[in-house]
Amino acid sequence: MEPKTYTHDEIIAMLREHGINPTAQRVEIARELFSRKGHYSAEDVFALVNNDQTQVSKATVYNTLGLFAEKRLIRQLIVDPTKVFYDPNMVPHHHFYDVVTGKLTDIDANDVRITGLPALPPGAQMEGVDVIIRMRQANPTAG
Amino acid sequence: MEPKTYTHDEIIAMLREHGINPTAQRVEIARELFSRKGHYSAEDVFALVNNDQTQVSKATVYNTLGLFAEKRLIRQLIVDPTKVFYDPNMVPHHHFYDVVTGKLTDIDANDVRITGLPALPPGAQMEGVDVIIRMRQANPTAG
DNA sequence: CTCCTAACTTATAATCGGTCTAAATCTATG
DNA sequence: CATAGATTTAGACCGATTATAAGTTAGGAG
Fold first, then answer.
1. pLDDT, tens only, B115-143
2. pLDDT per residue over B57-98, tens digit each?
3. Domain count, chain B
């Protein structure tokens, strides 16, 4: 959870461990994701990696996030009706989602127990379990 | 679960009970949804209500589904990265989601127990809890 | 080195679900 | 019938994502 800093080599090792060829752009995107540990849309990532130091195209950002998710380096969150979020935190956890602001908050999965789920259909392989608690702040600043 | 048929008047009563003015288009959309009880995208509904008998515009379909969800006549499912699904089944339940085909399957919530969830942030009001089990059929027809 | 190939990145066009807009229609009421 | 408010509509528009096709890069063979 705490924003650990990763060295260039550590990032490269992470990618390799997940079967990802560590190109400059992929390392840069991974660095941004893992140096912050939040919830990012592709547009967010695109903004993060395009600055004075680095330039990465939009197509590469989308491709790379998809690749990372496929290789299980990060997790895809389908929670907002308009866009996908990506979560570099691979420790099992769930989410609060504020339906007004779109803000996501982690829920530690350690304490959460889900029992009584039926078996998967025959031949099916589990990809993941998403638990999303949708909530709304009781108009805090309404007047 | 079993596809009960609703009379025109029953549909109108349902809408009124949820504070929805029962216009012709809304009744038609509700009839299609409740006569089948599945999981529908807006495009699905648009196709269902546009036939020899009836014509409803795309804008009205989107507006009406949004209204129905807001009034809790149906439930919005955010589970597919590309589009929203609507579920006329308001009995609490969860979903299997086949990440390849996009097919949704109901999971009866009666047996499912979720414990250990933290309290909502102060002032927050729960909108709903979504449990989605993402799975993949082990390539049944690959060759 | 230089060539070659495969992997990768890029700019840009295209797609697609969904929303917006402004006009038309409907409905209830006086 | 006139009016106002709610609703519907066609079509323009938007924003997230994907597709396309060309350009770049890295590494091995000669």
1. 988 899 899 999 999 999 999 987 654 43
2. 999 999 999 999 999 999 999 999 999 999 999 999 999 999
3. 2
Which residue, among B61, B64, B72, B7, has the nearest Cα to B34 in the 3D structure?
B7
End residue of a domain, out of A35, A54, A77: A77
A80: Cβ contacts below 8 Å, ≥ 6 apart: A41, A97, A102, B78
Contact residues on chain A for B116, CB-CB shorter than 8 A: 111-113
- The residue range of the domain holding B66 is 8-77
Of A108, A113, A124, the CB nearest to B136: A124
What does each C-alpha distance from B45 to A61, B42, B64 come to in angstroms?
Answer: 34, 5, 10
CATH number where B14 lies:
1.10.10.10
- Of chain B, the end-to-end C-alpha distance in Å amounts to 36
